[in-house]
Amino acid sequence: KEASPEAAQPAPEANTPSGKVEMPVTDTMHAIAFVLWHKVLDAPVLMSEEAAFRVFCDASAEVNSPRTRAAWQAVNLSREMLTPCPEEWQPYLEAYIRHKASWNLVDYIELIEFWREQIDNGLFTPPWEHVLVDEIQDLTPLQLTVIKNLLPEDGQGFFGIGDPNQSIYGFRGAHGQAHEFFQQTWPDLKIINLTENYRSASEILATAGPVLSDQAVGELPRAVNHPPSEIRLFEAPTAESEASWVADQIARLLGPTSHTLMDAAAESALPGEPLSPGDIAILVRLGALMHPLKEALNRRGIPCSVPTEEVFWADARVRSIIDAAGVFLGIVEGNPDQALNCPDRVLAKGPLGVAAYLQNTAPFDDMFWRSSAFKGLVRAFDTYGGWTGLINWVNLQNELELVRGKSEKVQIMSLHASKGLEFTAVFMPCLEDGLMPFAGPAFLTGQNADPSKINFVEEARLFYVGATRAKQGLYFSHAARRRLYGRELQLLPSPLLKKLPDKWIKHSRLVKHVRQEVEMLTLC
Hints:
Elements: H1 29-40, E1 45-46, H2 49-60, H3 66-81, H4 90-102, E2 105-106, H5 108-120, E3 131-133, H6 141-149, E4 158-160, H7 178-185, E5 196-197, H8 202-208, E6 222-223, E7 230-238, H9 239-254, H10 262-266, E8 280-284, H11 290-299, E9 304-305, H12 307-310, H13 316-329, H14 344-347, H15 351-358, H16 366-369, H17 372-383, H18 387-396, H19 399-402, E10 410-414, H20 415-418, E11 423-428, H21 441-444, H22 456-467, E12 470-484, E13 487-489, E14 505-509
Parallel strand pairs: 1-2, 3-4, 5-6, 7-12, 7-14, 8-10, 8-11, 9-10, 11-12
Antiparallel strand pairs: 12-13
Helix pairs in contact: 1-5, 2-4, 5-6, 9-11
């Protein structure tokens, strides 16, 4: 997982000289490793995944291509899984290591590699008696090894929480069977199975469970609470009509806002007070699927949020300032065609210095300098001690962290980011074969999908995770035609939908109305 480095504090002693007990260290592995690195060596510049890939391409003197993408994925998987790098890609890895070291750059994986080396070489003595780890099913072999080495040989003091049926990060090297890893490491490990679900209605669990089929590990949780529920499946002819249906259903759940909605609201199978926008989420497999859904909700006047679009660094002009600062620090190579016309001496003064220098220079204007996005940049610059700290903090953020904050808006997010969250009603649109299960980036560019490269088990788990975020309302949909990345797609419904039992699902589709021409006979 990833989080902000400033939250990771130095390892506490059990008691301070004043006798006060320190608070526990509570943070992510990457953030704690970042602080450790900072103590031992000069503070590095942490790269985002996108920046790390650019450095990888620069190191190999190649452009972004299918081959470099394949090399990048293979190299990172071997690092996370503690397996030898395939010989074909070894030169890429060696060039990448040299290149980032020369610029004092690190990526996420290197933080954990460094922590492991410190432990293995006896340079880091774990100061904690108890180590509590959440979401252990998402840890890679590299991360699992670090966790193991933080504890005594018998594992005394370890407490882990995880669900192998929600292991959805295999593409990043997640072990998937962490419970087996720890059982083999510590044979006396005590396992407590939780089989009661206090979130979802029984019909929702009964509908989602069969998606896992025979691949489920252990007993799936059973519902403790039995609130009224509603499960629907909509077949749309186009992506536009699907997005309109989603907006209509959400408007119905939010309750009548005019006389025209009174009848529709009466159909709701969720009794009680109308839902608020923050009670509803739309979960999709790909980020590119979010925008049409957001537009449909905006047309209906329904407040919605795409968390990854609303952070201050998502603003194109803020991003240009941050990129210019990165070039100034030597973190990234500048692109002359996109370079911000701002001298280094001005960038060194921070965002306010940039504002004073550029003022009304296009594309900047007085409104931008007063915008929440620029104010967020100024606050972050001050909070994290300058450009290096700010860039490190931005690069440590991930989608999951961005959606944690409670917002009174309908949340539109990826299925991966939804894990750990819950909503009264959940919409899962765009359920077509190739998009869910996802057939891979090559499929989106028009190439035939290679079934051998699709992790159907993990995709089923991802579907299960999304469906079980819902407490009472669960709404599936798919479209016969969809335009994506400039291509017209005509895809079959997701095969995962065939595994859903019909017992609790209300099916609906858009019916084409045909106007009949009637010949009028006249009397003469």
